[in-house]
Amino acid sequence: MKRMMFCLMAMAGVLMVPAQNSVFDFKVKDDVGQEVSLSDFKGKVLLIVNTATRCGFTPQYKELESLYEKYRADGLEILDFPCNQFGQQAPGSIQEIHEFCTVNFNILFPQFDKIDVNGAAEHPLYTYLKAQKGFGGFDVSDQRGKMMDDMLRKRDADFDKKSDIKWNFTKFLVGRDGRVLKRYEPTDKMSGIEADILMEVNPVLSTIMSRRSVRKYLDKPVEHEKLELIARCGINAPSGMNRQPWIVRVVEDQQLMADVTEVYKQANAEQVSRDKGFKNMFRNAPNIICVCTPANGGGELDAGLLGENMMLAAKAMGLGTCCLGGPVRFLTSNEKAKFFLDRLDIPADYKLNYIIAVGYPDEQPDAKPRDAAKVKYIK
């Protein structure tokens, strides 16, 4: 009985351990041994680096300090964690390491106590970082990347199948919300890392790069003032000859959305039954924005610019969006849904083009891959 009680208490203890959902949930020790909560860096863009003072990559300290000086005012923080696990290339105490870095590279970014980043004694922060972003491989077309790949593959033919840190100066980029965005190997070019940092510290670029199509929303209507601001940003989009050929309808009437959803459910009973989380036909969003263009054609390009403005504005205000085409086809083809279109009061010479679902997001979807090869530069 006592043994059973002990087991239950142990299990309860495990369950009570708080889950780490972001980098900001961890604590580390600084260069004088004081415990620091990474929550102190909330709202900052972080570049977390494991470093060494006697490594072939040690000159990267100069490049890191250059990045720090360039973007610190915009919210960048570089967190340096010396580690002696790779070739014993970070010997000495943290004080000796700090003095070396100050004298030789004049670093100003925060430097923390030495840690392990792999193995039984690895710091929990690095356990989390590696779980979020595993090893993506070295660029073997690069001389240094090939050198690292050859060296490590001789030691372990399957080294690339493990998420552990491979060498000094591996870097993790963390967004302002504490999510791990990217991992860089020591051979990755600093110019590429800088471009990613700029995307995060610049508010406009950050909003563009972080917008995702959201398909799960909190059951909370968007405030009228925010919807009004979104619409205002939309109609300030450019249009050919400033014709502004769009008509916009922002739906706040919850009952209207519920009523037309009932029509949708009747027509798509089997599909709806398979979706256990179904609330309405607009991806369960509490509000929608309907965009219309001339019925005889034209205005689609301008309407697209309008919609992108609205979705980016929504993202900047902490809202999620998703551009919908399916509900448009249903609304314009089902006679029983005519009451919804009538309520929108769309002029006779206009047609419903697309709908934007908008609401407070209940998910944080990752970015889907983009094919950079589709872009070519003609010089």
Blueprint (SSEs and pairs):
Layout: H1 2-16, E1 27-29, E2 35-37, E3 45-51, H2 60-71, E4 76-82, H3 94-105, H4 124-132, H5 143-155, E5 171-174, E6 180-184, H6 190-201, H7 203-210, H8 224-235, E7 247-251, H9 254-267, H10 269-274, E8 287-294, H11 300-316, E9 320-324, H12 326-333, H13 338-344, E10 350-359
Parallel strand pairs: 3-4
Antiparallel strand pairs: 1-2, 3-5, 5-6, 7-8, 8-10, 9-10
Folded structure, characterized:
With 379 residues, the protein is α+β, with helices and mostly antiparallel strands. Helices cover 38% and strands 15% of the residues. It has 13 helices and ten strands. Helix 2 links the parallel strand 3 (45-51) and strand 4. Helix 2 packs parallel to helix 6 (190-201), helix 6 (190-201) packs across helix 7 and helix 8 (224-235) packs across helix 11 (300-316). It starts with a helix and ends in a 20-residue tail after the last strand.
- The average pLDDT score comes to 94
Strand content: 15-25%
What is the CA-atom radius of gyration, in angstroms?
A: 26 Å
- What structural class is derived from the secondary structure elements? alpha+beta
Helix content: 25-40%
Unreliable spans are 4-18
One letter per element, helices H and strands E, the order comes to HEEEHEHHHEEHHHEHHEHEHHE
Count of separate DSSP helical elements = 13
- Biggest beta sheet attributes: 4 strands, mixed
**How do the strands line up in the largest sheet?**
4-3-5-6
- Write down how many β-strands occur, each being a DSSP E stretch of 2 or more residues: 10
The best one-word shape is elongated
Report how far the terminal alpha carbons are from each other: 79 Å
